[in-house]
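Q: Could you fold this chain for me?
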Amino acid sequence: MVIYYLMKGISPLIVTIVIVAVVIAISIAYALWITSMTTSTIQQRYVKLEFYDAQIAIKTILLYIRNTGSAETTITHVIINNQEAKITWAWDITENKYLGYGEVLVKPGHIVEIAVKTQKF
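A: Sure. Below is the predicted structure, expressed as structure tokens.
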């Protein structure tokens, strides 16, 4: 003979509280997972170029530019006195390397020397 009055069930109020707590815990874990996924794929980078010197050589203007930002940038045009100047060559002083002419890639933390010619120079 089994005594049934000693076996009590869980109160419906406690079951409801446990279910709500489990759902909240799962939703917090999901939100943290989604946040970590989006922040790891989105990186904030900025471009900051500092023009710190210029010299006039024979028929050429030499510009010294430092990239103090966190991203690479490409210099495609140089405008002096509202006239576009042609980039004749560029030199990465930091790596001691020739960069070519036309478009100049400047890496973060690097200093480049750019030679330009204008139409009236």
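A (continued): The beta strands are 49-57, 60-67, 73-75, 78-80, 83-92, 97-100, 104-106, 111-117.
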